[in-house]
Structure formats: structure tokens, C-alpha cells
Amino acid sequence: NGGVSYIWSTSELTNSISVSPNSNATYYVTGTDANTCTNTAQYTVTVTEMPNANAGDDAAVCQLNYNLNAIPSVGFGIWTVALGDNVNFSPSVNSPNATITVGTTGIYSLIWHEDNGNGCIDADTVVVQLTQPPTSDFTISSIPCYGDAAVINYSGTGNALCTYIWSWNDANVVPGIGIGPHISTWQASGTQTVGLIVSLNNCPSTQTFVTVTNPTLLTSTISHTDILCNGEQNGMVVSTPTGGTFPYSYQWNNGSNTSALTDVYAGLYTVTITDINGCTTTNEASINEPTQFVIGSTPDQSICYGLSTTLNISATGGTEPYTYYWNGLLSNNFITVNPDTTTTYTATAIDANGCASNISSTIVTVSPKVELALNQSANSICIGEPVIIIPIITGGIGAPYTLLNDEGNIVTSPVYIYPEQSGWHTITAQDGCGTSDTNSIYITVYPLPPANANADFSYGCQPLTVQFNELNPENGQTYLWNFGDNADLSLAKNPVHTYKQAGTYSVTLTVTSEHNCQNVITYNNFITVWAKPVAHFIWNPYAASFTNPVITFTNMTENGIPSYWNFGDGDSSNLENPVHRFPNIGSFLVELIAVSENGCLDTVAYPIEIKEGYTFYAPTAFSPDNDNKNDEFYILAHGIKEAGFYLGVYDRWGEIIWETTNFDETTEQSDKWDGSAK
Predict the structure, then answer these.
(1) Are residues 545 and 599 in the same domain?
(2) CATH code of residue 493
(3) Beta 423-430 vs 402-404: how paired, if at all?
């Protein structure tokens, strides 16, 4: 104390320092006061060893005792229990390698404390799991019948915390895991072994095995003998049991309690077999009998004379194969017969078990011959016309009959034919069994007359006059022309016809031969008549004077563009709506020529009047100063007559100062006034 500065042997300059030596050490300090006086002191630090507690590694063992493995360092040590009850230490709690013993399975936490005697202490914890392995005892209930369930109950020392490892020997087990109880069934019969290991904290028990017997399955076989003929009582059923536990008892659905049934009817027979343990099995057999043995023969037949037919026996029921008889004679099931008269055939049969069938009969009726006659609507026709043939059929087996034409095709009555040339035509009639008759007729076929026409014009402007010509030579034909315009018809061979209306016309020519055969030919869209334009125009003004002889023309033509104008004064125009100035007065015939798109013309002309008009011009001033410029006063006029002309000039007082009666119509001007007064 008392210094103002310090220096330590550690080179520090504060009045106090902190040190952490690993062994005993001495420290020096020199102090200096305000007067630079110094003093030195020393301090010695003594270091003792620190204990380092080590309780050993954690462990888990399958027993209730354990040797501890603490590693001592310095000082003295002691064990304490942090977790667990009733822990005994041997030889003592101060032994680092003491053996601990407990009474129950559990986890135990132990602390190893060390103290060096100078107040320095340390501690470490070890955790030990001590487990007593459980037992694996269990029981299995007996199995009375194959497939019944066995109950497995655990009876060992384990609990729900244990792991149960079962071996079931291919059993079907519910639930099959855990402590149980378990319900088990086996598919295989005989001795079945179940094993169990119980483990707690990975500490397994010894494996326990228990056996149980699964009886063999009680089954049976059943045989039977069927009935030979329908309705008899000679069936047999025999049942034979196997498996289960002898002796057996029997119970049939018909009330019998023997192992076999004899002399029974057809039907389903069921037997229940019971062994001494009450296990049962059921089996059944059906004793069959053939269905009723029935035959049928071909229905009664009708055949044509001279033809044959096949008769057949159809059998059902009984037991095949069958033996057949016709009229008491061994035969096939079918025979072919061709009687001349109606005959009855009798059929019977016997099956493989000797059962006889019923008797069946077939009557074969023989019909008369077929005869065919033909009626026809005409012996001769024009080509293309039909002939109606009406067949008259008798005999055979009756209607319906089949009719065949020349080509062998089926036709119906009445038969329509359209012969193209003269010749014979044949019809064949067949009845239902194929008997036939054939007949023929001769038909004469006349050809159609030739028809061929042309025209000198096929198109033109309305009205259009056309010369038609039929081009074939005369052989007694007659003609009928229809020109297609709803106008008059013509019977001429080469007619002339005028079409008055525009349009397109089809022309039909009908030529009739001497045999009254007609050939009709139509020339579609043969004649085209073009519409003629309708020329018309209007003008404005309706009348004009010479003073303004200009007329505006408006073309009102229908179907006539372009148009051509002739104004009657030597001038013309091809404008649609021209404006024209006429050169003088007078009446001018204006003509409009209209042309259609097909070149058809129409002309219209109207007179246009240009009348004489009146004009008058008088100057408002003049300068009579003899400079040859505007020195005289006179008038200019048009339409003024010389006779009766008068022109006067008055002063402001109404006094006449100059006058004249002279007017020259040729120059259209009056006398001139030079400005002098009377």
C-alpha cells in the first residue's frame, strides 16, 4: 500500500493480479510512492490436486445384480442412489467396484462422489438397467373337429411391456401377436406345435413348445346307380365316410339311417354323417332318370306326282344310341319314298336301355300335274310398250305357284314384259314341290319412227321467226310440234313459228308412225329470244328560245345501254344523258337509238322546238367628243321588226332632242345619234 505504481514479476502494472498456476508458485511485486521510494514484496501460492470422478460406463444386464466400475482419482469416494429403490452395495458404498443387488427389474441411476480433503469435490453418474428375464409358459385348448379353433393362453411371468415371439406352425391366428389370448386354426391335420419366446429389455426367456392334435377332416364319398327307363324305381345310393373319429351315424333326407339306399326313385338324396366327437359332414347324390323317350316323324307331306320325299324320325329323351323302325322294319331314322298314291308310314324306336318309344305316323299325299295357260294383252306393240301376260294355272299342290320368265327369274302375275324385238316369250309355272309346266306367246314389235329436227335460227331478237325442219324421209308419219311458248301447235312437217316474247324455249316434236308408234323428242332450251330494248327519253326545258337554245336530255331507255343520239341539226352524241345547244330556231327531230347487250335495237324520235326570242341592248352612256371612242349612241336588238320601229331621246324636261324610225333587221341595230340636239 502507499505506492503510486507497481510492477509484478509477471510484468503486470496493477496493484493486484489474478493467477492460475498448475503447481506451487511465488510471485514478486515492487511498489513506488510519490517520492520515488520503492519497496518489494513476495507472495507464494500453494496448489493441491483436483479430484476427477469417473463412475464408469452405463450398462444393461439380464439379471438383478451388477458389479460397478468406478475409477478413483484423489481423496476418498462414496456411492449414492439417484434413481431406484432397495439397492444393496457389497462390500460397502465406499468401494468403487461394489456389487449392487436389487429386488425388481428397472433402471437405476448411481452417483460416485470424490473429495480431496481440501474442499475440492467432483461427482459422476452411471445408469444401469437390471432385468429379470420373464418365463414363456402357455396352454392350448384341445381341438374336437378338423378346422375348429384352439385357444392359446399365456401363463408366464411376462407383462404387456414384454415382446412375445410366437411360432405358429402355419396356423391362421387372431390376433397372432402380443400376450394374447389367441384363436388359432390349422389347415393341416395331425400334431401341431406352437413355440414361444418372451423378451424384456432384450432379455429373452427360454423357448417353450406345446403341441395339440388337429383331427383329420371328416369327409365322405357317395356313389349312385341311375334309373334305366323313365318312371322306374331301381336307383341306388351308397355313402362311404373317411377321417373324423369312428364310429359313425347316418341320417338321409328320406328318413333312412343306413349307409346305403336301394330301390329308390329318381331324385336328390342327401346324407349327414356324424362321428363320435359330434363332427359332421354332408354329401348328396342325384339319381337321374332319362327323360321320357319320345319320337316324332315328319309331318304329313304333299308331293307332286312322280317326285319323292324324305321322311325322318326325330327322337328325344331316353338313352342314345337309338334303333329305328319304319312300318315295323329295321331302318335308318330317315327314308326316301316316292309313292304313286297317298300312303301312311308308321315309325317306332328303341333306346340303348331297351326302352320303347311311342308310335308316330306320316301320311304322304300325291298331288295331280301342273298345267299352265297364258292370256296376253296384245299380239303386237311399239317398242318400249308393255305386254301384260296373265298366267292361268291348275293342278299341282295348289297355290302359291312360282312363275319364271325366259331368263329364269321369278316374276309375279300379271307379268309385264317390254320386248325390244319380235319373238317368242316363255313362262314356266312351278308348284311348291317343283312340278312345272311351260307355255309361250309370240309378240310382234314395231320400231319407233325416226325423229330429228333443226332450225334456221336458235337465237335472235324479238319478235323472232324460226323455220323448223324434220329431217327424215316421209313414210306415212304424222307430226306434232309444241314450240314451248304456249302458242299454237303445228301439224306440219316443216313449220314456221314466230316467238313474240323474250325467253328461252324447249321444243317438243312428236312423230307418229303408220303403226301408231310415237317417238317424242324434246330439244331443251332450243330457242333463245332476246328482249328488245324500249327506247324513251325526256328533255328539259320542254321548249327553248333562240336566246338560250340549250336542252338537257335524260335517257329513260329500258335494256338499252349504250345509246346513240341524232339531234336533227347534223350533230350527234353517244353520251347517256347529253346536253345539246341548237344552232338556230326551228323544229329539230331528235332521235335515240337504243342497243341491248345482245345487239337488239329500238328507236324513238321526238320533235324539239327552238323558238325565236327578243333581246334589246342600249348603252347607259356615251362620249360624243370625236375621239372615235364611243362617240355615238344606238341600240342592238334581236327579234325586232323594221316596220313600226321608233326610238326617241328626251331631255329632262320631256322635250324630244333626237329620234329615228330606222332599224336594220340584218345588222340588228338602229340609226346612230352623235349627241347633237335638234
Answers:
(1) yes
(2) 2.60.40.10
(3) antiparallel
Q: If DSSP states are collapsed to H, E and C, what string results for 203-241?
A: EECCCEEEEEEECCCCEEEEEEECCCCCCCCCEEEEEEE
The answer to the question of residue 496 being in a domain is yes
| 132 Cβ contact list (under 8 Å, min separation 6) | 62, 63, 64, 104, 105, 200, 203
Contact 500, 463 (CB under 8 A): yes
Closest to 362 measured CA to CA, from 391, 385, 342, 383: 342
Pairing of strands 572-573, 544-545: unpaired
Q: Which amino acid is at 407?
A: E
Question: Same domain, yes or no, for 633 and 659?
Answer: yes
Read off the pTM. 0.38
Contact between 387 and 381 (Cβ < 8 Å): yes
pLDDT tens per residue, range 615-671: 788 888 889 888 888 889 999 887 788 898 999 988 888 889 999 999 998 888 999
Q: Are strands 663-664 and 669-670 parallel, antiparallel or unpaired?
A: antiparallel
115 domain-assigned: yes
The total domain count for the chain is 9
Q: Is the pLDDT of residue 517 over 90?
A: yes
In tens, the pLDDT along 113-153 reads 999 888 889 999 999 999 999 999 999 999 999 989 999 99
Task: Tell me the helix, strand and coil percentages in the chain, rounded to 5.
Answer: 0, 50, 50
Note down the domain range covering 160: 138-214
Q: Give bridge partners of residue 438 from the DSSP assignment.
A: 428
Q: Are residues 607 and 618 in the same domain?
A: no
Q: Which of 230, 220, 229 is nearest to 285 (CA)?
A: 220
C-alpha cell at 359: 308310335
Of 259, 287, 315, the residue at which a domain comes to its end is 287
For residue 150, give Cα distances in angstroms to 143, 162, 189, 243: 6, 23, 13, 19
Q: So what's the pLDDT on residue 563?
A: 83
Q: How many Cα atoms are found within 13 Å in the side-chain-facing hemisphere of 440?
A: 7
